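Whether sequence alone determines local backbone shape is best considered at the level of individual chains. In the encoding step, the backbone of a single protein was reduced to a row of integers, each denoting a local shape. For completeness, the protein is quoted in full, as a sequence line and a line of structure tokens.
***
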Amino acid sequence: MCPRPARPRKRNARRNNTGHLWGHVQVIKPPKLLEIYGQMMMSYAATNHAQYKLESEGSGTRLKFTHQAIGLIAADHREGLTKGFQFWLERIRDLAQRRAKR
């Protein structure tokens, strides 16, 4: 986690000078904890809280990810979130494993 001041996350901001406010940093305790809250990927009446927590485990590190949302969330979006989060967690694991082999 970067010790720089927290800024809102924007998606697509570089393409055409527009963006989407993903959320605000609620807690940052480098290098172990990051919490973000806000609409994130939901452009409707919903709010989210995501927690990324790093814990030492043997000679490695475990990432514990927690996501909570409240609002009128369609079932297909809920399923898509599960698949999307699984994709990103696997991607993070693969990148970390490749970096550890260097």
In short: The chain has two helices and four strands.
